Request: fold
Amino acid sequence: MSKARVATVWLDGCSGCHMSLLDIDEAILALAKKADLVYGPLVDAQEFPEEVDITLVEGAVSSQDDLKLVQKIRRRTRLLVSLGDCAVTANVPSLRNSLRPHDLLQTMYVHRVDADPSLPGDGAPPLLRRAVPVHEVVPVDLHLPGCPPKPDAILLVLGEALEGRRPELAGKVVFG
Amino acid sequence: MPNRVSIRLDGEYIRATRGQTILEAARANGKFIPSLCAMKGLHPVGACRLCVVEVAGVGRLLPACTTAVQDGMSVTTASEKLRHYRRMILELLFAERNHVCAVCVSNGHCELQALAKRLGVTSVRYPYAFPRLEADLTHPRYVLDHNRCILCTRCVRVCSDVEGAYVWDIGARGVQSRLVCELNVPWGQSENCTSCGKCVQACPTGALAEKGFAAEEMTKRLEPIARLASSRGGRI
Reply:
């Protein structure tokens, strides 16, 4: 049997969900027998590949780059999982939503900075008007809330999904 | 008129007291009906609608907290239809304000968060409103954060029913509705507030909290309020 192709991605989040993924400890060895990690901050791939079975998305959709990437991920992924509160609710990244991006950048990079105040230059992805949950821009198959989600819950999702089943999370997981 | 009535709760006969609400009768019989605005010791108002139940012969859902039991009444407290609407109500509450659980003082001790888990809400299907809302930090000991307020009015009622100070009310209409202090003055300028803190304890979320607490640190106690109300002959 060929191995499942699993990807993870880190959008506007703190990487805490990826830390929680690593916190499944030795269980990751059993997963490694059933799945290959084909993309994500933990591996080298530069381009999001075709034909991915499961993608765990950490983080809110906050910039033009996030939006393009998550749209590509949706096209190339069978089971898209929103991993953690930023992906599920926009969470902490949404705290900036009451400010317009220009005012936000002025505040954080110019007004409140003493040394060399300047706006981020070329290469910084333009911000969307608001940081939004993943399912507000592409359809999401499964929501795994938590800040971060518990390692047990991540393991349950991966374990069930790798067996072709849809894990039942209602009543087991919570925001925050 | 007999003081006792019989009602059917999910098919099971139970005895209740005339004047009791469906919610009170259900709880007295160990039956769980989700609610947020109902609180022991305070008069019910039916603000949150989470406790909606089906009553045989009535074509619409009724809030269990404001509907009195009647002899022979047949009530359904759990069904697919009720679960559907209750989840919808919770999701609308989350979408309406900025409930950022991860950084909330009440994270882990919040009734809204706990109900979301219990009712199986793992995401919100409605677009978040992300309104720009303020926090009132003018009171020396307490904080009012409108971002977390669900307009349940427990604070309004505990202040009027139990403390008798009438500090809180709801101002404006619809989605613009806000908890207001007296005639919409900053809390710190209130002339009637006794700083008793009952509103803070009664608040089911992190909207009212004590100052000096970080995320996850604010816990609340409802029992002393219920005891106080009961000792003064208030509604149990």
Chain A has a mean pLDDT of 96. The longest helix of chain A spans residues 64-76. Residues 4-96+131-162 of chain A form a domain with the Rossmann fold fold (CATH 3.40.50.700).
